[in-house]
User: Which sequence fits this backbone?
């Protein structure tokens, strides 16, 4: 990941300035490499996500078991 | 008194990377077309991720699944069911495109950063597992297609890996996208195959009322539903379209064209998918055997016997194309996920030297799948048939996070989901989840002999 830009102001060639005009500020690699702030999930949302995750893992294991069983 | 000259420092602008430079060149053409009001040129420049996600999902296992549906049950039910599934896929993929265009970030990194590393890595793990299994199935598809022309698995591996390396060689997203788009249009071979079997147009039109409903055992019906859903919406599409939209440089002003792109992809994929179904249905009156039998013998050979060698050849070429395009898009989705989750450069606009993990993951996952199909006695057919089912089972979690991201006010601002999109999105998640879980549980209970077949 690119380090945040805290260095000196960059001197640019005119063609570079022109190129920059075609990108939105938040499209620069410099900007997209900054992580977005973490959202706070409520206890119920977290519990629901874990329940879904456990359920999906269990069903996946069943599918994999069936797949292996069918091979024999 | 002498006036003091105030020197205002120039605004602090971020450093420009090679990736920014390349992307800004692509954006420059988009702005130019928009300024001059060149509508078709603008559409041409902005289509890509949506069509690739949809036609990439019309992959080898999917086309075999559609053809198997047709061979086993005829046209009824599935002719309207496939377009309904692609309408569902459009709702999901439109969200991916919109989130990518607004945030300029991929699905993997957003989940990881927004909801925590645990959920991010779980998502990447699901993706890697399903992608690896699906990629094996894609090589199997190429092998089945090549076998019709008396070519072996070594050629299938060489073809798949050469394409991956060739498309990666340019160091530009635009180049990669256009090559794969050009290849993806050959998915239309399945429509040609459908025309060559000379279907009864009246029967095709008559099947639009969802009847007759497929018969057979409950488990077979669940397998058909799960594998057909898995042939239409999968985790890799979610990762791919969001990341590709960001990599392409799409912005909120491009969302309308992103919708056209996704809708066009869905329509083409539905037409070509129904084409494979119709081609398969030509076999239903000719001792239509089970899914395993047809896939094992090779659909092209079976089609050759009932509709001639041209139909067989076209179907075989279609399978090669479907497998090849999917290898490229699925490898790309793995590479995006790897780069995003590790937190390193993840763009086709960056050179391999500066995005080593991205390129290594892209080639590595394809290489790993290729090695599997070279293992003597590997259960390739079973892997191919179960790839879609596994994708269906793991899909609900990816979709839930997709809906959460698309509803995140902090990220999306005024581009958050509308209420109607949420209602449809939740209905899709529930339907996919129930079908996948019902098949998984029913099959498991049969395997351990708790219920009869």
Assistant:
């Amino acid at each position: 990941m690119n380090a945040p830009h805290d260095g000196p102001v960059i001197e640019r060639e005119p063609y570079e300035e022109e190129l920059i005009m075609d990108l939105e500020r938040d499209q620069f690699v410099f900007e997209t490499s900054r992580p977005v702030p973490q959202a706070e999930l409520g206890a119920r949302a977290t519990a629901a996500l874990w329940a879904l995750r456990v359920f999906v893992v269990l069903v996946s294991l069943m599918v994999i078991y069936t797949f292996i069983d069918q091979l024999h | 008194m002498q006036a003091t000259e105030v020197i205002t420092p120039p605004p602090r602008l971020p450093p420009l990377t090679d990736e920014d430079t390349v992307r800004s060149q692509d954006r420059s053409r988009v702005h130019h077309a928009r300024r001059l009001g060149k509508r078709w040129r603008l559409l041409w420049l902005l289509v890509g991720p949506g069509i690739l996600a949809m036609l990439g999902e019309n992959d080898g296992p999917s086309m075999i699944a559609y053809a198997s549906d047709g061979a086993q049950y005829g046209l009824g039910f599935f002719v309207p069911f496939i377009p309904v599934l692609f309408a569902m896929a459009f709702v999901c993929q439109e969200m991916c495109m919109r989130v990518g265009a607004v945030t300029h970030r991929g699905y993997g990194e957003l989940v990881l950063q927004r909801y925590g590393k645990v959920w991010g890595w779980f998502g990447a793990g699901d993706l890697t597992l399903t992608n690896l299994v699906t990629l094996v199935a894609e090589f199997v598809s190429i092998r089945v297609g090549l076998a019709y022309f008396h070519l072996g698995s070594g050629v299938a591996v060489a073809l798949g890996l050469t394409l991956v390396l060739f498309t990666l060689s340019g160091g530009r997203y635009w180049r990669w996208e256009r090559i794969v788009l050009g290849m993806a249009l050959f998915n239309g071979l399945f429509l040609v195959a459908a025309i060559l079997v000379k279907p009864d147009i009246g029967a095709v039109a008559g099947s639009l009322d969802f009847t007759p409903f497929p018969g057979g055992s409950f488990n077979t019906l669940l397998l058909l539903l799960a594998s057909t859903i898995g042939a239409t919406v999968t985790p890799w599409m979610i990762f791919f379209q969001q990341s590709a939209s960001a990599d392409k440089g799409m912005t909120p002003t491009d969302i309308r064209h992103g919708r056209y792109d996704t809708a066009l992809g869905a329509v083409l994929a539905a037409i070509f998918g129904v084409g494979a179904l119709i081609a398969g249905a030509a076999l239903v009156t000719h001792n239509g055997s089970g899914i395993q039998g047809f896939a094992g013998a090779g659909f092209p050979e079976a089609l050759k016997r009932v509709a001639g060698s041209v139909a067989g050849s076209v179907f075989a070429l279609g399978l090669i194309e479907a497998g090849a395009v999917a290898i490229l898009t699925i490898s790309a989705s793995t590479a995006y996920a790897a780069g995003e989750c590790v937190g390193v450069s993840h763009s086709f606009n960056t050179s391999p030297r500066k995005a080593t993990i991205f390129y290594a993951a892209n080639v590595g996952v394809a290489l790993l799948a290729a090695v599997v199909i070279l293992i003597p006695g590997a259960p390739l057919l079973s892997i191919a048939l179960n790839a879609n089912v596994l994708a269906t089972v793991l899909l609900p979690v990816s979709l839930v996070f997709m809906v959460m991201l698309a509803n995140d006010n902090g990220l999306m601002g005024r581009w958050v989901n509308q209420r109607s999109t949420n209602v449809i999105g939740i209905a899709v998640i529930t339907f996919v989840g129930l079908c996948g879980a019902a098949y998984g549980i029913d099959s498991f209970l049969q395997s351990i002999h708790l219920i009869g077949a």
